[in-house]
Design a protein that fits this description.
Elements: H1 2-22, E1 32-33, E2 39-40, E3 45-50, H2 57-73, E4 76-81, H3 88-96, E5 103-109, H4 111-118, E6 129-136, E7 140-145, H5 153-160, E8 166-169, H6 175-187, E9 192-195, H7 199-207, E10 213-217, H8 218-226, E11 230-235, E12 263-268, H9 274-288, H10 291-299, H11 309-334
Parallel strand pairs: 3-4, 3-5, 8-9, 8-10
Antiparallel strand pairs: 1-2, 5-12, 6-12, 7-10, 7-11
Helix pairs in contact: 2-9, 4-11, 6-11, 7-8
Length: 336
């Protein structure tokens, strides 16, 4: 009897082991690592969360990036629009996901920092795994109606020190609003801030002389500036923009503290294996240096800009520090 039980147990154990091997060792869904230490996401399904609705700038860039990224990884890549909570629905979901390479997010910066600091996000911006930037360099600009009496940034600052100047922007706590507050602090002025549904609406309002000035990125300014409906007075980036070669940077004019980098990047849940982070970043770099993708991105008004994990994290830390400067101002305005 004991011999029978021993044989029976060994037989059952053998069947369990064979079944385990047939299933690939487990129901493994994360990145595979071969015995040679080579990481692969081939054949996997990757979800990229997007904090905004379909058709938004981030969504359009993500969907342009998607097929190239999927091809490079040999994976299926799904775009999931998780709009809500000012982007926090997506940020929260990504933050709480497993760091296995199968859940990523494409998000704007500093939007994610502002979501944490001003909208009660259940995440820590600097704890994400920073993979790489995809787009950047599309800085905010301050602009006025083309026939405005304010021909330079100094003209606008001087006016704001003597009377109420109405400035349009795309919502409270947005990237443009944050940049405007940084500029106000650097220049020692305060605008009367009025909000619109989006950047395009801001530019149209300024062109129609409904406000004295507006803040928005190159995408919303370019066409109206070319049509001489608006005049860009200054660029809040580290360098002049080719679309507005005559518009000096705020840094050139002495307002260094108002320079703010705006970028779009690929992040993942916290505590991802650094080797997996680098693997995904390398695949993304191939996409970001593909001339076809670069041209497609340009056609939708986005400038491709790649920074790897370390550089991206350093930029995220800088942006987070700037967000801390404006958080109280944003909360005060939102409470009104």
């Amino acid at each position: 009897m004991k011999k029978f039980l021993s044989v029976f147990c060994k037989t059952v154990l053998s069947l369990v082991i064979l079944s385990f091997i047939a299933c690939g060792g487990s129901k493994k869904t994360a990145a595979d690592t071969s015995s040679g230490g080579v990481i692969s996401l081939k054949g996997k399904t990757i979800t990229i969360n997007i904090p905004h609705k379909a058709g938004s700038t981030t969504d359009i860039v993500a969907r342009t990036f998607q097929p190239y990224f999927a091809k490079e990884l040999g994976a299926t890549v799904i775009i999931e629009n998780l709009e809500g909570g000012g982007g926090n629905k997506s940020h929260n979901a990504t933050y709480k996901a497993a760091p296995d390479g199968l859940t990523l997010e494409i998000s704007l910066f500093p939007s994610i920092a502002l979501g944490e600091l001003t909208k009660g996000g259940e995440f820590k911006s600097l704890e994400y795994s920073y993979i790489n930037t995809i787009a950047g360099g599309d800085y905010n600009n301050i602009f006025v109606p083309y026939d405005s009496p304010y021909k330079t940034l100094e003209d606008l600052i001087a006016a704001a020190k003597t009377k109420d100047i109405i400035c349009a922007g795309p919502g409270i706590g947005t990237n443009s609003h944050m940049n405007l507050i940084l500029f106000e602090k650097a220049a020692g002025i305060k605008f009367e801030y009025v909000t619109f549904d989006g950047g395009s609406e801001v530019a149209v309002a300024v062109a129609g002389r409904h406000t004295d000035c507006g803040m928005g990125n190159v995408v919303v300014c370019k066409q109206l500036a070319e049509d001489k409906k608006i005049r860009v007075l200054s660029v809040f980036g580290s360098e002049r923009q080719p679309e507005f070669p005559d518009a000096p940077t705020a840094k050139e004019l002495g307002y260094d503290n108002s320079v703010m980098n705006v970028c779009m990047g690929l992040i993942a849940p916290p505590k991802m294996d650094p080797a997996l982070v680098q693997f995904i970043a390398d695949a993304s770099k191939v996409v970001c240096t593909n001339p076809e993708f670069v041209a497609q991105a340009k056609s939708i008004g986005s400038t491709v800009s790649y920074l790897g994990p370390a550089e991206f994290k350093a930029l995220g830390e800088t942006i987070y520090g700037q967000a801390l400067i404006v958080v109280d101002d944003i909360k005060a305005l939102a409470a009104k």
